[in-house]
Amino acid sequence: MNTPREAGHQRLLSYYRRLQRWTLGPLRRELGVMHRAVKRSGADSQRTALAFVSGEVERALVSRLQPGFRVLDLGCGLGGTLARLVNGPALRGIGLTLSEAQARAVAARAARSGLEGRLAVVVGDFHRVPLQGARFDAVVMIEALVHARAPATVLAEAARLLVPGGLLAVVDDFPSPEARSDPALHRLLARFRRGWRLGPLPGFAEVEAMARRCGLVLVERCDFTPLIRRHPPQGSWWVRPFAWLDLPGDLGGALSGAGARELLTARGAMRYLLLVFARR
Ligand SMILES: C[S@@+](CC[C@H](N)C(=O)[O-])C[C@H]1O[C@@H](n2cnc3c(N)ncnc32)[C@H](O)[C@@H]1O
User: Fold this and answer.
1) Gap from CA of 77 to ligand 1 centroid (Å)
2) Which atom of ligand 1 sits closest to the CA of residue 126?
3) Beta strands of the chain (E only): which ranges?
4) Does this model's pTM top 0.90?
5) pLDDT tens for residues 238-264?
């Protein structure tokens, strides 16, 4: 019989199977990114917007690490960010994902880009990373911590895998305290969590406190919310009404969750942040 943890993984895998099959357009597949498209200006193309987050993570790591660093991407998706780092300033990279289908896509990307031997992928759970002796100069988590059922455990794993002075870069949605105290916002938050198969979704202050307890000190915080509110992403308007419908199934949940996320962001009840922590 399945444990609750295994059942949760099965639900997440089914969700990502459908998402990968039905909702990722050709550009996302080509770039290998499942995260938000962010425009610096209204004139930015969708390609530029989809490259934004990876570019910001690269900038944050390069400004503090020597070239040739070893990087681990927890929740690597299709591996676009990881491949970009290994093609650029990183010497080696390992991606971890729960999904075998995503792992195959990452391996194919590594082969296409001539990165075999420097870019590897592992299937596993980031609550207990199946890498024993390995240590990294950087750990990256993009829109992945939101899925953690125990975020403190995942942060402790990231800290365990980093060398002293190593960096953890997290990009994610962080609900404001009002998103829990205001009943209407709280309903939207619940729909976002249920629809997208997310964990408890701690706020920024909670994550910072959890990280501190693992020996991770915040060294940078960038808020991309003003950019998203100024230049709402493609599809942001038509998806919002779905926030009020509790649609069933993986694709229904993806739509309701996307609508709730857009509304929470537009109302200032959720912020899209890049956080960089240094391991003491
Ligand atoms: C929204 S996708 C983001 C993918 C990628 N970071 C990106 O930016 O395109 C979330 C990722 O987290 C992974 N994930 C979710 N729960 C996980 C877990 N418990 N262990 C490992 N990976 C997990 C999913 O498989 C998926 O790759």
Assistant:
1) 5
2) 20
3) 69-74, 90-97, 119-123, 136-142, 162-175, 216-223, 270-279
4) yes
5) 999 999 988 889 999 999 999 999 999
